[in-house]
Write a structure and sequence with these properties.
Blueprint: H1 4-9, E1 12-16, H2 27-35, E2 40-41, H3 60-76, E3 81-86, H4 88-99, E4 105-108, H5 124-134, E5 137-139, H6 148-157, E6 162-164, H7 165-179, E7 189-194, H8 203-211, E8 217-222, H9 235-246
Parallel strand pairs: 1-2, 1-3, 3-4, 4-7, 7-8
Antiparallel strand pairs: 5-6
């Protein structure tokens, strides 16, 4: 059981999953925070409700509206609200922190650039827009996690067997919107990034740390983790870092 002083400082937590995923992407972290007595909300973003197997089109404007609604419901109960976002959920968390008084931000592998996109002379949105006209739904790749048991668990939990390029293009639009807001965001922020990430560009986490307007910001690089850091082989460290930061 938590100590009384910790219970008094414990914020409510809004947990945001990634593009094409669901709360299962943060499963061990959610369970650990529940066990610690945190009040949680982990909404499923519009266009991610299932049942699949084809992922429908959805827009970042719809995701952001749902996230704001979930935040307002938590805030209405009283007390501070922290936000934890994975991948595109992290991008949404940054957008929300610009629009609401978020107490603390935990960003897990935040999606601010596609991995290796800096090596391609064409902007990702340009070639994905062309590709979406021919093949709007791509076959889903295996989960980006090195832990074999968690890879199987994640694959079994996924609702979709395809990935919507239209939704991906909308996520890229969200990134452009958020990047210009980053210097104005003053929320205390913890960024956790896998060095072996095969989905998002790890260097973007460094950029984020350097450009955030917050006076309290920390970047932790996990040397053995891929994109799904909350499921991968260093997930216990993700839990410990998050718990300590939320109670800091």
């Amino acid at each position: 059981m938590p100590e009384p002083d910790q219970a008094a400082r414990r914020p409510s937590c809004l947990i945001l999953h990634g593009l094409g995923g669901g709360p299962y992407e943060l499963g061990p972290l959610i369970e650990a925070l529940k066990a610690d007595g945190f009040r949680l909300a982990a909404p499923i973003l519009p266009g991610h409700e299932g049942p699949g197997p084809v992922m429908p089109h959805s827009s970042w404007h719809d995701w952001a509206a749902a996230v704001e609604k979930a935040y307002d419901e938590l805030a209405a109960a009283g007390g501070p609200v922290a936000v934890m976002g994975f991948s595109t959920g992290g991008t949404l968390g940054l957008y929300l922190a610009h629009r609401r008084p978020v107490a603390r931000l935990v960003l897990l592998a935040p999606f601010l650039a596609i991995r290796y996109s800096r090596l391609i002379p064409i902007r990702p949105a340009a070639y994905l827009r062309l590709a979406s006209r021919v093949l709007p739904n791509l076959r889903r790749r295996p989960p980006a996690v090195r832990d074999r048991e968690m890879k199987r668990h994640c694959a079994a939990s996924a609702r979709y067997r395809t990935f919507s390029l239209h939704a991906t293009l909308s996520a890229l639009e969200l990134i452009e919107e958020v990047k210009r807001l980053v210097p104005t965001i003053r929320t205390p922020t913890l960024i956790i990034q896998g060095r072996l990430d095969t989905v998002v560009e790890p260097r973007a986490a460094v950029w984020l740390r350097d450009h955030l307007g917050s006076d309290e910001k920390q970047l932790v690089i996990l040397s053995r983790s891929d994109h799904l850091v909350a499921l991968d082989c260093q997930r216990d460290r993700v839990i410990a870092l998050t718990r300590d930061f939320l109670l800091g």
